[in-house]
Amino acid sequence: MSDMASSSATAQQWKYDVFLSFRGKDTRDNFTSHLYDALCHKQIKTFIDNDLERGEEIEPTLLRTIEDSRISVVIFSKNYASSPWCVDELVKILECKRTCGQIVLPGFFFYHVDPSDVDEQRGSFGNAFAKLERNFKWKMDKVSSWRADLTNAAIISGWDSQVTRPESKLVSEIAEAVFNSISSQYESCCFITNVREKSEECGGLIRLREEFLSRVLEQENLRIDTPRSTHGIHFNQGKDPAQKSLNCSR
């Protein structure tokens, strides 16, 4: 990152922690919705454009939302490039990465597509660009820019759904990567997986509290002698200790 981008990132007041870029017809009701829920569960403020109607031209308000987001998560799927709106989002995200230090994390995510198809615009991506060239033949410079940005995006390391399985593991890994990337803004924090399942086990809440305090206080094998008392630290049933850390440190 350049010094200018670094200083811009420091001065930027972010409205959202994460902006999700995705093709709705491919992932809105499956992977993207699960990722969105996982991020929100960790109290990571995430923008998803469920209420926007998509046309050929991207809305200026959405471009502004990308600028106002600390992190962008791009989910490449079979029909991503068939949407001029999605490709314009990608162009803006890469611009913000270069100019104001926006984080594109965790790299890019390839959902049921081969990264080389994105890089070289083959397969569904090749078909999409053939159609874009017909529909935007009076704007071939824009199509060429889209091609270049897709190639640049594909070389950034990320996650491949054909390699990391099941999808629940992918969701958890991405949520943790996002959490780690913003954790420096808090005085103390930690990421604990499967909180709901662990809390439902016998003595689960006590063990979660001990794990949480051990990580935050950086003391191994910390034990609480009074299991019925939290000594002023209150965790509500079902709440994620990592969330409580974020709440207390904002």
Write the layout of secondary structure elements.
Layout: H1 3-11, E1 16-21, H2 24-27, H3 31-41, E2 46-47, H4 60-67, E3 69-76, H5 84-99, E4 103-110, H6 115-120, H7 123-135, H8 140-154, E5 159-160, H9 167-182, H10 195-199, H11 204-217, H12 241-249
Parallel strand pairs: 1-2, 1-3, 3-4, 4-5
Helix pairs in contact: 3-9, 4-5, 5-8
Low-confidence stretches: 1-10, 229-250
Determine the CATH topology of the largest domain.
Rossmann fold
Strand order of the largest sheet: 2-1-3-4-5
- Principal-axes geometry comes out as elongated
The overall pLDDT average reads: 77
What does this structure look like?
By secondary structure, the protein is an alpha/beta fold. It folds into two domains: 3-182, Toll/interleukin-1 receptor homology (TIR) domain (Rossmann fold, 3-Layer(aba) Sandwich), CATH 3.40.50; 188-249, no CATH class. Helices cover 50% and strands 10% of the residues. The chain has helices at residues 3-11, 24-27, 31-41, 60-67, 84-99, 115-120, 123-135, 140-154, 167-182, 195-199, 204-217, 241-249; strands at residues 16-21, 46-47, 69-76, 103-110, 159-160. The longest helix is centred in the middle third of the chain and has 16 residues, at 84-99. The chain is elongated and about 70 Å long. It starts with a helix and ends with a helix. Mean pLDDT is 77; it is low at 1-10 and 229-250.
